[in-house]
Write a structure and sequence with these properties.
This protein is an alpha+beta fold. The protein is built from 5 helices and 10 strands. The strands form 3 sheets. It has a 5-stranded mixed β-sheet with strand order 7-6-10-8-9, covered by helices on one side. Strands 2-1-5 form a 3-stranded antiparallel β-sheet, covered by helices on one side. A two-stranded antiparallel sheet has the order 3-4. β8 and β9 form a beta hairpin. α2 packs across α3. The chain is elongated, with a radius of gyration of 44 Å. It starts with a helix and ends in a 5-residue tail after the last strand.
Length: 247
């Protein structure tokens, strides 16, 4: 029986020896170590430039680390403010059907005639005065109607085939009276309302009636007068009267 026992012990030692040698080699070998960068939580939380997240295994730590890596400051979007060059041009609502009157300032262009091209103001008599043709009635006409009248005058013995354009350079003023900080005459701006007129005049006085005003609108030889709310559109030459409240 002794030889059999010795044979079994010899075989067991032969099998165990390679396993022991392999284990010793693994213990002595230096494996790869994942080196975390300094301030790793800050890097993961705030997305430092150039940082690459190391690969993690499964488990709770991987879930937490993955959550930190996805968290970051949201992108900041800056809206470019349009400058004066990109601002849209305000188109007056009264052209081309706007009826001209005294105080309107016009730009008259006669193509090819620099001596006639100029800026003209409609005088109290309702006319503009141009070289060669003298006074031309403008009150009650539209810009295109005035251009046609000037063309007819020039064609009558002055220019064979004139080409004329008329545009409004500035409108006649409006007037605001009564319970405002600074009553008086102000330049008209396209698309104004009664409320914006009050603002231009410095706002209401403490005694002003603020729910409505009296608006006088010239209409040919007569005028229209009515109590209107503050959102009513204003026309050139209108007069706004802000009344006084009694309570």
């Amino acid at each position: 029986m002794a030889p059999v026992w010795l044979l079994r012990a010899f075989r067991l030692s032969i099998v165990a020896l390679p396993a022991a040698l392999a284990l010793a080699g693994c213990m002595g070998r230096s494996g790869p170590i994942a080196a975390m960068p300094r301030n790793d939580l800050d890097s993961m939380a705030y997305g430092s430039r150039g940082y690459q997240q190391p690969a993690y295994g499964g488990g709770a730590f991987a879930a937490v680390a993955s959550g930190f890596s996805r968290r970051g400051n949201p992108p900041v979007v800056y809206a470019a403010s349009p400058g004066p060059a990109s601002a849209p041009r305000v188109v007056p609502v009264y052209e081309p059907d706007y009826q001209l009157d005294a105080g309107d300032r016009l730009r008259v262009v006669v193509y090819g005639q620099e001596g006639l091209t100029n800026t003209y103001t409609i005088g109290p008599g309702g006319t503009i005065t141009m070289p060669l043709i003298g006074a031309v009635p403008a009150r009650g006409r539209t810009p295109s109607g005035l251009a046609a009248a000037i063309t007819a005058r020039l064609r009558n013995g002055f220019i064979r085939d004139p080409s004329v354009a008329v545009e409004i350079d500035s409108y006649r003023p409006f007037f605001i009276l009564g319970e405002v900080a600074a009553p008086g005459q102000y330049p008209y701006v396209p698309n104004m309302t009664v409320e914006s007129a009050v603002a231009i005049a410095g706002g209401f006085s403490p005694r002003a009636k603020r729910d409505s005003v009296i608006l006088t609108h010239p209409e040919g030889a007569s005028s229209l007068r009515a109590a209107v709310p503050l959102g009513t559109p204003l026309s050139p030459g209108d007069t706004v009267m802000v009344g006084e409240r009694w309570f």
